[in-house]
Design goal:
The complex is a heterodimer of chains A (111) and B (112).
Chain A (H helix, E strand, L loop, with lengths): L3 E4 L2 E5 L4 E7 L6 E7 L5 E8 L4 E4 L2 E6 L4 E6 L8 E8 L5 E3 L3 E6 L1
Parallel strand pairs in A: 2-11
Antiparallel strand pairs in A: 1-3, 3-8, 4-5, 4-9, 6-7, 7-8, 9-10, 9-11
Chain B lengths: L2 E5 L2 E4 L5 E8 L5 E7 L5 E9 L2 E4 L5 E7 L2 E6 L8 E8 L6 E3 L3 E5 L1
Parallel strand pairs in B: 2-11
Antiparallel strand pairs in B: 1-3, 3-8, 4-5, 4-9, 5-6, 7-8, 9-10, 9-11
Chain lengths: 111, 112
């Protein structure tokens, strides 16, 4: 059974600092990996999708890396802003595009 | 562009009552459809997925069921709700091959 772990569960950083969020998974036989953002009481917003053949994916201030062999992915958010405060979810993609989620990293960016 | 709708947005139901949550997708055809639940203190859990009309797969045993009567409609149901059914229910869709998954706004269900 695929297990996805996200560390730390919660963190606070001052505005302007870079954010580093970690995700680990137990079964390296994944198709892809996707990072999402969730604001309180809201649905999920897709941030980045990394294909299993890729090492990283970038969008603006966001960069996600994937190391399948070690079962790890890292999401970097450069120069954090108060608007980046949210919960960030990592999900590995299995057959039929099913997602297995971690419990998330709850981020607070302090102005 | 594609849009995914869920309703109702919030729901408060007594234990033992029935449930029907609806999800519809616009702007795409033959999507894969998914139901997830996010319970307090737990991560998002996949409940059901569907790769076509009438084709439903269950990920976890429970007193919930799902149906897909039309290509872009996905319904989550229960005959008798339990307290443990409380949570935030999210519907999602994706393309046929491994692709980005897009989520709806969710339904907050409270069972009392």
């Amino acid at each position: 059974k695929q297990e996805v772990t996200q560390i730390p569960a919660a963190l606070s950083v001052p505005e302007g600092e870079n954010l580093v969020l970690n995700c680990s998974f137990t079964d390296s036989a994944i198709y892809n990996l996707q990072w999402f953002r969730q604001d309180p009481g809201k649905g999920l917003t897709s941030l980045l999708l990394i294909q299993s053949s890729q090492r990283e994916q970038t969008s603006g201030r966001l960069n996600a890396s994937l190391d399948k062999s070690s079962g790890r992915s890292t999401l970097y958010i450069a120069a954090s802003q108060p608007g980046d405060s949210a919960t960030y979810l990592c999900a590995v993609i299995k057959g039929n595009n099913r997602l297995a989620f971690g419990k998330g990293n709850q981020v607070v960016v302090i102005p | 562009s594609q849009t995914i709708h869920q309703w109702p947005a919030t729901l408060v139901q007594p234990v033992g009552s029935p449930l029907s949550l609806e999800c519809t997708v616009e702007g795409t055809s033959n999507p894969n459809l998914y139901w997830y639940r996010q319970a307090a203190g737990r991560g998002l859990q996949l409940l059901f997925y569907s790769v076509g009309i009438g084709q439903i797969s269950s990920e976890v045993p429970q007193n919930l069921s799902a149906s897909r009567p039309q290509d872009r409609q996905f319904i989550l149901s229960s005959k008798k709700l339990l307290l443990s059914d409380s949570g935030f229910y999210l519907c999602a869709w994706s393309g046929r091959i491994t692709d980005t998954q897009y989520f709806g706004p969710g339904t907050r269900l409270t069972v009392l």
